[in-house]
Write the structure tokens for this entry.
Amino acid sequence: MTAAASSDPVEVLDCLGQRCPLPVIAAARRLPELPVGAVLRVLADDPAAAIDFPAWCRMRGQEFVAAGSVDDSPAYDLRRLH
């Protein structure tokens, strides 16, 4: 399965310990460098991240895939659409 057809992240961006707006800024810088269709997983424990990532995806025309956890750390999956 290719990265474009998969929900598996092609990269994990560790933003643990960073506060708003740093995790979103880091994701906004990294996502355009990935291939269209790729999923970026962002680890972010700032409580605002749960609101910030879906809102950022809506504003930028990207896909908010899922929120979950990896090794007890909050994780957010974002798909590059363009």
User: Anything to note?
Assistant: The radius of gyration is 11 Å. The mean pLDDT is 92. The first helix runs from residue 22 to 30.
